[in-house]
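re: that chain from earlier
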Amino acid sequence: GLLALLSGGKFAKAQAVLADTGFPVAGVLACLAEQPALEHAILNDRLDPWCAAEPSAHALGVIFSHSAIVAGQASASDALYVAGHALGQMIYILDSYSDQMDDRIHGRFNFISVLQARSSDASPPVRQLVGALVADKRRFLSASWSLVEIQQHRPALETVLFAGLPAKVEHLLADPVEPSESGELHQNSDWSI
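^ sequence. v structure.
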């Protein structure tokens, strides 16, 4: 996942540059490394399933927050943390949705599958559940972004966050991961932001 991407050899130079700016590289990597233990605790009913989204959400929150500091806009740091955290949760939800079939085949933890297993029999179809979860995180993202006073590159960032991302979400949800009559999951699309 995100830990493998950020801790790989390709990112050694980037980590050094980030560390030079005061970015807490080791702390973020340590947080991401907690993912397997969190998933294990969730599967053993010791933690709420939402705890699984926290490493990714926290990492994006810290990245967004630190970008404000580096840009000399420390006053936007808290709002950008909230925006990044919401975006991290949204990406985690969408990644779980798109990986649901593969995770089931390989016996891996999947956030959406855990939510479904713990919900009542009257729970909505998975696509509807994911749509509602993502809409909730988009509201957090939008509300926190409205508090950010950074003007440089704002139109481009808003295009990505509030036009490109929703379009990608709609595309992903249009190609549902739903069980067939035989119980198999089917999905034909992949997503990347």
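Confidence is low (pLDDT under 50) at residues 179-193.
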